[in-house]
Amino acid sequence: VQLQASGGGLVQAGGSLRLSCAASGRTLSSDTVAWFRQAPGKEREFVASIAFYGGTYYVESVKDRFTISGDNAKNTVYLQMSSLKPEDTAVYYCAAERVSFPFDEARMYHLWGQGTLVTVSS
Fold it and tell me: I want to staple 5 with a disulfide (CB 3.0 to 4.6 A). Which of 28, 37, 84, 116 is the partner?
C-alpha cells in the first residue's frame, strides 16, 4: 500500500500546477486525503483535505487559489494550484486515512506519500 505524489516543478509566480496523489493497494474513495507542505526550515503545514463524501477544507492562505478534488476511477486525488506565490514553495506531501472528516492535523494521517517539490520563482 502506497501513495505516489507527483506533478511538482518550477513555475513563475502567478502560474499554475496540478499535483497528483495516486494510490496503489488502497481505495482512496473510502478515505480522507490531505495535502501538506513543508518549506525549508519550517514545520509541515496543512494545505487542503477532501473526505470521501466530498467535503473539503483548506488553509486560509490557499483558499480561492487551490482546489482539491478526487477521481475515483483513477484512484487519484489532485491539488490544482493557481495564482502561485513564492511563499507556496515547499515539498508537498499527500496523506490518507480511513476517516470521515477532512482533518487538518498531520497526526490523524498514517499513510504518506514521498513528497513532490514545488518551486515558485518571483
Answer: 116
Question: Which of 17, 32, 6 has its CA nearest to residue 106?
Answer: 32
Q: What is the pLDDT of residues 20-75, one digit of tens each?
A: 999 999 999 889 999 999 999 999 999 999 998 889 999 999 999 999 999 999 99
Strand (E) or helix (H) holding 35: strand 32-38
What's the CA gap between 32 and 100, in Å, rounded?
Answer: 6
Closest by CA to 89, choosing from 56, 41, 55, 24, is 41
Residue with cell 498514517: 110
Q: Looking at residues 81-92, what average pLDDT do you find?
A: 98
